[in-house]
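Q: I'm writing up a methods section and want to include an example of the input and output format. Could you take the sequence below and give the corresponding predicted structure tokens, formatted cleanly so I can copy it straight into the document?
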Amino acid sequence: MAHTIDSNSLPYAPEKCERKEMISFDQFLSVDLRTGTVINVEDYPQMRKPSYKITVDFGPVVGTLQSSAQITNYAIQDLINRKVVGAINLGEKTLPGGFVSQFLVLGALESDGTVRLLGVDPSMPNGSTIL
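A: Here is the clean output for your methods example:
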């Protein structure tokens, strides 16, 4: 399902989101979830939906990765130095303009599809594993 923002149909209202199929704990652990700090944010006008290009420092083992995110509900200055959670082993995807997205930033969806980034304690070191 493609991510949409629709204030009329509210596609992500909790009563509309069916429970997903059970997976094993090992399957869950195969997703590499890490903490990182946003170090750069740019507008990404080539995308069909309003988006930013973000660069996140995931610490000494992973380094910096970039992604596109539909999080323009946040001001750029509010994202810089913010701690985020990223899924870093889902593969790369080449987007319009040749931009390569290397991870998925995680957030909770409001009923209309607006993304609210997951919170991480600011004291967590970059690269910390999420369980």
